[in-house]
Amino acid sequence: xxxxxxxxxxxxxxxxxxxxxxxxxxxxxxxxxxxxxxxxxxxxxxxxxxxxxxxxxxxxxxxxxxxxxxxxxxxxxxxxxxxxxxxxxxxxxxxxxxxxxxxxxxxxxxxxxxxxxxxxxxxxxxxxxxxxxxxxxxxxxxxxxxxxxxxxxxxxxxxxxxxxxxxxxxxxxxxxxxxxxxxxxxxxxxxxxxxxxxxxxxxxxxxxxxxxxxxxxxxxxxxxxxxxxxxxxxxxxxxxxxxxxxxxxxxxxxxxxxxxxxxxxxxxxxxxxxxxxxxxxxxxxxxxxxxxxxxxxxxxxxxxxxxxxxxxxxxxxxxxxxxxxxxxxxxxxxxxxxxxxxxxxxxxxxxxxxxxxxx
Length: 359
What we know:
Number of strands: 13
Helix content: 40-55%
Strand content: 25-35%
Shape: elongated
Oligomer: single chain
Radius of gyration: 47 Å
CATH class of the largest domain: Mainly Beta
Largest sheet: 6 strands, antiparallel, barrel
Distance between the termini: 64 Å
CATH topology of the largest domain: Elongation Factor Tu (Ef-tu), domain 3
Structural class: alpha+beta
């Protein structure tokens, strides 16, 4: 081998050595800092509670007032269902209510009439009773006069017949009074029935009005619309989904920790989240869930060795106040790392100190 070839091979070897050395130094300087004792870490993804905005009753979708990706507020109108049929039913029920209220007035008038008839029948009873009392007294005097020979036998027979007729009149008057009282009771029951019909019709109106109100689909809370499931003009069944939105006041990351670390993770403990898309920010969070039952590590944990171990599912949530301040930055599905402080007495290392976009 010539000296020139030897020199070329030597230079190439030297260049390779320099590159390897530089790579080692670079990797050493840039590798993630290790966690001190008292902390645990695992990978996960940002998640949020999803909400389906659905039609309560079957009908045609008339309008969607927002677009995919829009931020919406609690109570904001998102979509409207066609209410032509419900509007017609409402008018029909309102007409039935007017008719039912007239029925109540008529029944009350009948009660007044029957009450007056009862008063008249009671007066007739008193009149017939008074006539009977007078006839009895007249008969007694006639009997005395007849015994003394001062009155005829015919007069005595007439007075006796008058007493019997008066007593029969009292019985008839009392029967009429009982009939009048029964008619009064029937009239009062008719008032109750008519009032019940009014109440039932009003309840029908309230139900129809509630269906009309529910045909305006509103946001149940602040959030962002993810996608439209239906389009205006489509006919949906009861419970048919129109929109899907995420509740940006309930954002969290779920991950898995080994037995030893999960056993030291306390509910309400401090945590930090660093997203792959924004490693310059350190987001504070709180442990809001630690599973009671262990499970095998899911496939999202990369190494086969790790998947052989039992782990516990842990969830850390971001404070709603913080989410409201940075709501336009919140996006679900972003991967990242979650860090949990197992020992409250251990301070957070410098690279895990809170750093937010406004800092």
